[in-house]
User: Which sequence fits this backbone?
């Protein structure tokens, strides 16, 4: 079937207003090609950030390090200027400008972080070997300044992408190929999350084609074996293939050859639920590519590093928050009768029970008031939550909204019972009702914050909260923890989802 024939069939399937709408979508995706422009804007921004970081370092280094002599020699200035050029190059080498990670969040930030760290370490070694006067002091300021500015600029650009995608812009047109149920799952996943992909058409097996039919609003455009021609006709930027009895290895290979000259990417969907990229490795063999999924590890050097990060971070936060802790303690004691702190049994790592601390935000005896507990429940699953809980004190309502009541949990972190970031600390009665997959949450320490905190807090459905906790337990990374802490600050300041 030729491209012209496929186009004719496609337009025959879509009638009236549907034809016009489909043509508009196709032309928009072909005209926009937003990735190239977005990449150029990122590179310019990164270069400007590098120049600002170097300028800041040159200005501050003599003040911060008086013993350095104050002024850079000619060789040092040359290398300092070179840093402004080298930083975007380093980001490019770390694939920080890969369109596939635009707006992805953790993966994009990780690549920018790696690029900055590798370049800073290399230049630091160069200054030691060459003995350039003053440059080491400049790097001590420029490297962290560049990292902070780079991450901040990427966050700002990512917000632009998210807003644009909510309005239908900055997305990649995708043609889904496979069985109906596979296409439906893919469409639902791509369209319910800000993935950056928008499915504009579906190709299914020949015996499943019904003229004029849609899957979740996306039109079926043709046979799976004619996917390359259909992709050309509808203006798709990529083709996502799900396995089926008609999508054999030979069909996929031929499809790749057909897509190559027209510049359309070929994607193979692997339905591996909640497995992060770092755990996946592809081993190419002569006739087949093996997809390795590393088993999650719950011990080793990475967990030692997490323990150190938790303890030092909790100690620093406790010292910084000490005035707030004292003021809040006095406010709780003055405004309601009862102890300042409230302790409750929670289940930690490997099922060990510990006493979790919080500022008391309810009246004394609230956890035994059957009149309230036996009434309406606004939470999903095994939790009990009320939007306007009568047991909460006036001060407690404010503390809960901004999560200030959880500050004493820093002492649980210092005691080794909790982590700064981790799954939500469950109650013993919750754990008694856990299914097997839910118990995987107990393989790591519970956290003061986590994916559940930045994903919706009390408004999050129970099943989604459990899924996020299990995902975290199996896929966490130190850099991911830092991003969650940063996102937590925003959630806490807005008070969204807390009651």
Assistant:
């Amino acid at each position: 079937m030729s491209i012209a024939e496929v186009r004719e069939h496609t337009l025959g399937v879509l009638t009236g207003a549907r034809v016009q709408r489909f043509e508009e979508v196709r032309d928009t995706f072909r005209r926009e090609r937003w990735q190239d422009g977005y990449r150029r804007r990122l590179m310019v921004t990164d270069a400007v950030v590098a120049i600002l970081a170097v300028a800041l370092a040159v200005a501050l280094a003599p003040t911060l390090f008086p013993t350095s002599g104050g002024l850079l020699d000619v060789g040092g200035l040359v290398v300092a200027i070179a840093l402004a050029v080298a930083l975007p190059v380093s980001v490019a080498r770390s694939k920080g400008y890969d369109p596939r990670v635009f707006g992805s969040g953790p993966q994009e930030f990780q690549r920018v972080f790696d690029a900055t760290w590798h370049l800073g370490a290399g230049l630091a070694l160069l200054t030691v070997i060459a003995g350039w006067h003053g440059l080491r002091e400049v790097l001590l300021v420029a490297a962290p300044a560049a990292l902070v500015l780079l991450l901040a600029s990427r966050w700002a650009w990512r917000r632009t992408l998210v807003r644009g995608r909510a309005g239908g812009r900055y997305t990649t047109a995708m043609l889904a190929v496979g069985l109906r149920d596979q296409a439906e799952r893919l469409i639902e996943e791509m369209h319910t999350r800000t993935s950056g992909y928008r499915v504009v058409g579906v190709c299914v097996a020949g015996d499943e084609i019904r003229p004029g039919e849609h899957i979740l609003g996306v039109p079926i455009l043709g046979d799976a074996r004619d996917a390359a021609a259909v992709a050309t006709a509808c203006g798709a930027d990529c083709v996502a293939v799900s396995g089926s009895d008609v999508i054999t290895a030979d069909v996929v290979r031929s499809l790749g050859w057909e897509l190559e000259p027209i510049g359309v990417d070929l994607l193979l969907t692997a339905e591996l639920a909640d497995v992060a990229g770092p755990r996946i490795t592809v081993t190419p063999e002569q006739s087949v590519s093996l997809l390795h999924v590393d088993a999650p590890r719950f011990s080793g050097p990475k967990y030692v590093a997490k323990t150190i990060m938790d303890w030092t971070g909790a100690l620093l936060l406790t010292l910084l928050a000490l005035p707030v802790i004292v003021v809040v303690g006095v406010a709780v004691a003055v405004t309601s009768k009862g102890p300042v702190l409230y302790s409750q049994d929670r289940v930690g790592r490997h099922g060990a029970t510990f006493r979790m601390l919080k500022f008391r935000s309810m009246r004394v005896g609230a956890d035994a008031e059957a009149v309230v507990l036996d009434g309406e429940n606004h939470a999903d699953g095994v939790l009990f939550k009320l939007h306007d809980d009568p047991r909460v004190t006036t001060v407690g309502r404010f503390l809960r909204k901004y999560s200030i009541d959880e500050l004493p949990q820093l002492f649980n972190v210092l005691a080794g019972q909790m982590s700064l970031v981790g799954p939500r600390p469950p109650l013993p009665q919750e754990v008694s009702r856990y299914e097997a997959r839910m118990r995987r949450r107990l393989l790591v320490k519970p956290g003061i914050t986590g994916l559940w905190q930045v994903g919706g807090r009390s408004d999050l459905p129970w099943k989604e909260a459990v899924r996020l906790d299990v995902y975290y337990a199996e896929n966490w990374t130190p850099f991911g923890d830092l991003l969650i802490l940063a996102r937590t600050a925003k959630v806490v300041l807005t008070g969204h989802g807390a009651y």
Remarks:
- Confidence is low (pLDDT under 50) at residues 1-7, 10-32.
- The chain has three domains: 34-166, 171-271, 301-494.
